[in-house]
Amino acid sequence: MTARPIVMFPDWRLRESAAPVVAFDEALHQLAQDLLQTMQAAPGIGIAAPHVGVLLRVVVIELPGGTGPRFYVNPLVEWASAETARHAEGSVSMPGVSEQVERPARVRVRFQTLEGVEGVEEADGLLAVCLQHEIDQLDGLFWISRLSRLKRERVLRRYEKLRWTD
Fold first, then answer.
1. How far is it, in rounded angstroms, from Cα 121 to Cα 130?
2. In angstroms, rounded to a whole number, what is the distance separating the alpha carbons of residues 91 and 136?
3. pLDDT for position 67
4. Cα–Cα–Cα angle for 101, 38, 123, nearest 5°?
5. What is the strand order of the sheet 46-48 is part of?
6. Distance CA 90, CA 72 (A)
7. Which helix (H) or strand (E) is 145 found in, with range?
8. For position 166, what pLDDT does the model report?
9. Residue 86 and residue 99: Cα distance in Å, rounded?
10. What's residue 44's pLDDT?
11. pLDDT of 163
């Protein structure tokens, strides 16, 4: 396992759609383990392959107090509730800033395991937020795109200020 360099906003790869995984091989397992290591080192609770510059549909999520890391290959939201919830979101590719984002409160996600086995998972709470956030990233939709223009501009100003003070 190796922590990989994280692609920082506004890198173009964060706005590109990731390709579906077709080879469920050792390289995929290595990528997944590298993503886990990178996410833990960041630190973060979710990461998608585009965050390390790899445009493949792979997500790793590890929630605090959870049962360990979860790996999702080719995930897709197949259902989302009409009920919404707000939660603070940020990104390993834009460290130091976060903002409240409103999303569906519950989702059903279809995905494959690292071995290629199909699965379906229903989620609510923080897991639902993370799944939607990372699947957006796989679709080339960076999290700040979900904010109003005013909130997005404030986040960008805070991020720029942090970058200049580092």
1. 13
2. 12
3. 87
4. 40
5. 46-48, 58-61, 70-80, 106-112, 118-124
6. 20
7. none
8. 60
9. 10
10. 95
11. 84
**100-136: b (≥16 Cβ within 10 Å) or e:** ebebbbbbbbebbebeeeeeeeebeebbbbbbbbbbb
Which portions of the chain are predicted below pLDDT 70?
166
Q: Which tokens in the block code for residue 25? A: 């091989």
DSSP string, 24-59: -SHHHHHHHHHHHHHHHHTT-SEEEGGGGT--B-EE
Q: Residues 24, 115: contact at Cβ < 8 Å?
A: yes
SS3 state at 85: strand
Instruction: Give yes or no: 134 in active site.
Output: yes
Catalytic residue selected from 26, 134, 153, 160? 134
User: Facing residues of 48 across strands?
Assistant: 59
Query: Residue 88: left if φ>0, alpha if ψ -120 to 50, beta else—which one?
Result: beta
- Mapping DSSP to helix (H, G, I), strand (E, B) and coil, where does residue 96 land? strand
Instruction: Mention the CATH class of domain 12-165.
Output: alpha beta
Which of 122, 128, 121 has its CA nearest to residue 103?
128
**Which DSSP category does 20 fall into?**
P
Q: Where are the domains of the chain?
A: 12-165
The per-residue b/e assignment along 50-69, b for 16 or more CB within 10 angstroms, e otherwise, is bbbebebbbbbbbeeeeeee
